[in-house]
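Researcher: Next sequence.
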Amino acid sequence: MKVAERGRRQHSAMEGSGLRRFTWAEVGLRTGRGPPPQPQERWLVIDRKVYDISHFCRRHPGGSRVISHYAGQDATDPFIAFHLDKALVRKYMSPLLIGELAPDQPIFEPSKNKRLVEDFRELRATVEKMGLLNPNHTFFILHLCHILLLDVAAWLTIWYFGSSIVPFLFSAVLLGTVQTQAGWLQHDFGHLSVFSTSKWNHWVHKFVIGHLKGAPASWWNHLHFQHHAKPNCFRKDPDINMHPLLFALGKILSVELGVKKKKFMPYNHQHKYFFIIGPPALLPLYFQWYIFYFVVQRKQWVDLAWMLTFYVRFFLTYLPLLEMKGILGLFLLVRFIESNWFVWVTQMNHIPMHIDYDKNVDWFSTQLQATCNVHHSLFNDWFSGHLNFQIEHHLFPTMPRHNYWKVAPLVKSLCAKHGIEYQCKPLLTAFADIVHSLKDSGELWLDAYLHK
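Model: Next structure:
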């Protein structure tokens, strides 16, 4: 196979390199949480090369945590998945190189499925040859235009029909749609899916998330890349940080919580209070205020400036049409609509799936066990920002979303070959599965809490 041949070439080149040789056991001790004498050392492996990221992690452009999550592990596949210009990144990595794997060591950890890793890397090469990582700029321009048109329509509704209850609510629905769809668009730029260079993606990302939504790009990057690196891995994926303070998530973690006799909430009722503190509250009662603390605490002044342009524009635009009380009411209602939309869509792909501590399995298995899809349709694609193709998105995070449906049959075929379940379900079933999974994990917690 091509992957095996490439591995042999790398192996031959390393024999004459004169670099220090390491075993996987030695690399595995450098997680940043190891025993003395090197408790803070962090090493990772990319293409058999061993890098010391102990100090670099704090300067890592994607954030210190996302790269540290792979300390002590092979990071070849996530490295390929997250970076556009890999040759440039490797140049910056050169000072971090401390050695290579010993000749008798396998390409990746012995615990990983060799055949599956090789097959996925072949799939990645096929995807690149098919041009599925190349964006269609017209798609994203049209998407931006439809967001701007809806934004204008919301203002015109109140300007023309007045601020009575019906036009006020209709305008709020339009603005809620604008905010949600802008959220999906900023997601595209944040993942470097629109332009061929990281620089342009980052700049436009700041505009879309900052000026169109009033949120900081640095905050999104800090959280979201961790989620992609280790989805549904407790203490590594910030998207499941509501465990155990608010919810008991996943079968394994819920039972563990019950066995330890921990009870921060009545988890056996979490499928009920989810409707109160989940979709309606996440954005207006938490994110809306936390983002300001984040940018000030981390001194992200450029992000703060972009955010302020959104709030200034919003209030100046609607001040001639509504009193201050009406503007605040409209703003909170828009955030309420957006919050419900955002939470149901983003959680339908992950909460019902496997949740556990990081077991350091291969990239393909890591993503498949933590994600599921929702049926492909024009409405579902638009409504979810193509996150109904969550599996493909997680496997190829820089792939433009308009190409997910093209790679899906190839991913299904690889799943079938290795006996891995490829879950795809109707939209309403996916929503219901969030509640069902919360109910199931709550009952597992209660049983363990009372009887184990």
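Model: The chain has 20 helices and six strands. The CA atoms of residues 25 and 72 lie 9 Å apart.
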